[in-house]
Amino acid sequence: MAKAAKRASEEIGSPPPPTHNRERPPEPQRHQASREELLEYYRQMLLIRRFEERAGQLYGLGLIGGFCHLYIGQEAVAVGLQSAMEPGKDSVITGYRDHGHMLAYGIDPRVIMAELTGRAAGISRGKGGSMHMFSVEHKFYGGHGIVGAQVSLGTGLAFKHKYSGDGGVCLAYFGDGAANQGQVYESFNMAELWKLPMIYVIENNQYAMGTSVNRASAEDQLYRRGESFRIPGIQVDGMDVLAVRGAATTALDWVRSGKGPILLELKTYRYRGHSMSDPAKYRSREEVQSVREKSDPIEAVKRELAAAGVSEDELKKIDTEIKRIVTESADFAEQSPEPDAAELYTDVLVETY
Amino acid sequence: MPIELKMPALSPTMEEGTLAKWLVKEGDTVTSGTILAEIETDKATMEFEAVDEGVVAKILVAEGTDEVKVGTVIAVLAGEGEDAAGVAGAAHDGAGAAEAIAASPAEEAQAQQATVAARPKQEAAPASLRVEPEVPEGTEMIRQTVREALRDAMAEEMRSDDRVFVMGEEVAEYQGAYKVTQGLLDEFGARRVIDTPITEYGFAGVGTGAAMGGLRPIIEFMTFNFAMQAIDHIINSAAKTNYMSGGQMRCPIVFRGPNGAAARVGAQHSQNYGPWYASVPGLIVIAPYTAADAKGLLKAAIRSEDPVVFLENELLYGQSFDVPKLDDYVLPIGKARVAREGKDVTLVSYSIGVGVALDAATKLAEQGIEAEVIDLRTLRPLDKETVLRSLAKTNRMVCVEEGWPVCSISSEIMATAMEEGFDDLDAPVLRVTDEDVPLPYAANLERMALIDVDKVVAAARKVCYR
After folding, report:
1. Which residues contact B337 (CB under 8 A, 6 or more apart)?
2. Is A130 strand, coil or helix?
3. What region holds the Dehydrogenase E1 component domain (chain A) (predicted)?
């Protein structure tokens, strides 16, 4: 269910705030997905879920080190948004919780998993790790470990789209925690000033590490964070892939028509800890359990599929296929050799001086 | 009493200016606030207002006159009850013809004290300085300021590559806070010469993202002091991405602007970031001294596939040097230059320190010590080979650095000398750097805190055991 921003005038009465006369995008409509589209969403979301579960296992076995941030629970966001983007034309950038976005962008799960295990076959040749993965070929620009950095970098990608007149749009994901970083607002200002083709996506999973949104944000309705910059915001149910896809369409229409940036707040939830080393003291087990039972994005698609007449058997077949892909990725990631020692010194600079 | 109107100092570094236009003529009555003239400074064209009331008795410096020293009497006002004609005659007798406006030595000295007292006087580039062997014999030279050379470098690269653009505070309509981007907006338009809000972290990130997307941004920081707000993108985003992506994602960007101490602007606006950036793998760091190097290296920086931090110096912007008149003058990154040959001691420096080292070398020569001066030009990668070759020749070395001593480029050169040139050393390497304090404002304290020729001469004599 996509919910448009309430007009500020409805909330505080007269005199009407300046937002009153501003053009707003229309209320997003929940996407009417075809059977094939639904199956594809299901397939992608399940791939992310199973992939991340396996990554969690490999972390436990010591095969993955350092920080590892899992996307479990948030699958509908990346899948719904990216299904609307034009591959090869639009660009995407995100923070450190990046495995899901890459999978939703069709990047080979084997090279992602091999990066997690730090192997030569990894997408960054083992030199980036979980938080630093890129695929220029797919116009996926990372994978950034500094909270909020991807927002200004993404604004730069949007600048590039406009400068080159290539018709592309940049989509930058960031979390409710990053939404409090100063550079986010510096970027908002420039993006609106220069009418850049930019979709800002706040994935509000309710917790910045262990700090809940309302303990960290004076304005906790994050879709309103663009208002001072005249950037319209839309709040979206991030647990419903069809609502997400509908909002993506609205946002893309707005941006592609040259109206400048737009802000989407996707209300979602992460089931796992912030990273693998999360003590989980800041929320109750019951809270997590309740979201899983009532709002799981994959279960929701399953229900849609049943209503569309897709049989259990058909879903089972997909499940089996996904399991195979993930097992293969894990095997590949475990068996690939570590980078050659000489790799230590390569790629520091492009040129030789 | 007639009132003398003197060439004003309209910026902290202005020593002379152009009297672009008179807006009053002899015989005009002026009051406080009347705009008398337009004066072009090293940074901008400014209006010169009257403070006193009176009648313009005599204009002593014609409009269009260049290089009018600060403090020069440019006109005389007859005060209330005075006869303008009489005052004019007296002024003429006293100050002489307009050409002979070089005011009395005492007056000039006084003016200088008032405006640039903080700095050791910036000498014109020494005559011994000849452009490096990178230029073919017989190449025609033109005299250019560092500022002009930098602008030409950008303009030439922008003409040949549409991906190159300039972004920063006041780079477009204002024509550059230090006039380095002067004229670029007119030639290239607002699409490619972009004024930003005051938002360093933000526009450094936007530039870096644009470079990742395939453009070739030149990001101007009004000064590198403000780049501290943006250092995360310079280091974490620009410098590391190529490595972290296994060579997939490049970041061909130039971050440029003035670095180091200016004049009398206090601690927050006076710092040399050379050592900071030079410590980061993944960055190229360039800090030129001459206009020719500024041009050739900035062009190389813009063409480089790697992220470059290009450190200029405000006090050098207005200095003139010979620049080769070539269609495409590009210098190699990572190569030092022997700025002066000598056999007794090596002085290693970069940026504004090179001028101090060259002046010291002149003084040392008078005392029978032949100093070799190495201009590093690039701080990362460091041209250790040239430094060590010179050390092998002179066996004595002094580092000269307008910056703090601790963890400095000097520290790095000294470590290199010990690790790789120990057998060539006849004396411990010394360093002449700024004092280890935030830069003070007071003229006398600022002077004490900065490097100067005498300190370099003393250190050179010491390593020569003289």
Report:
1. B132, B293, B374, B375, B377, B386
2. coil
3. 44-341
Structure tokens of B375?
A: 């201009």
- State mean pLDDT over B93-102: 43
Sign of CA dihedral B391, B394, B396, B400: negative
pLDDT bucket at A277, cuts 50 / 70 / 90: confident
Domain architecture of chain A: domains with CATH: 42-270+283-327 (3.40.50.970)
CB-CB contact of B287 with B274 (8 Å): yes
Looking at every residue in chain B, the average pLDDT score rounds to 90
Q: Is residue B254 within 8 Å of B219, Cβ to Cβ?
A: yes
CA-based nearest distance A143→chain B, Å: 9
Pick from B388, B407, B397: which is nearest to B278 by CA?
B407
Catalytic residue among B157, B200, B372, B412: B200
Query: b/e per residue, A256-268, with b = 16+ CB within 10 A?
Result: eeeebbbbbbbbb
Of B233, B269, B372, B446, the active-site residue reads B269
Distances (CA, A) of A22 to A26, A185, B47: 12, 20, 42
Q: What count of Cα atoms within 13 Å lies in the side-chain half-sphere of residue A331?
A: 6
Segment B305-325, tens digit of pLDDT: 999 999 999 999 999 999 999
Distance, CA of B382 to chain centre: 21
8 Å CB contact of A152 and B204: yes
CA B145 to chain centre: 9
Whether chain A has a CB inside 8 Å of the CB on B198: the answer is: no
Q: Are B339 and B375 in contact (CB under 8 A)?
A: yes
Domains of chain B: 3-116 (2.40.50.100), 141-324 (3.40.50.970), 337-463 (3.40.50.920)
How far from B441 is each of A1, B403, B433, CA to CA, in Å?
A: 62, 16, 18
pLDDT category, B43, cuts 50, 70, 90? confident
- Give Cα separations from B361 to A67, A68, B127, B128 (angstroms): 55, 58, 12, 10
Q: Which long-range contacts link A338-342 to residues 24+ away (Cβ below 8 Å)?
A: A338/A118, A338/A119, A338/A120, A338/A126, A339/A118, A339/A119, A339/A120, A339/A125, A339/A126, A339/A127, A340/A120
Which letter does DSSP use for residue A135 in this model?
A: B
Do residue B209 and residue A153 have CB atoms under 8 angstroms apart? Answer: yes
- A125 pLDDT more than 70: yes
- Residue B233 falls in the annotated catalytic set: no
* ipTM, interface predicted TM-score of the complex: 0.91
Centroid of chain to Cα B298: 14
Inter-chain touch B236–A146, beta carbons under 8 Å? yes
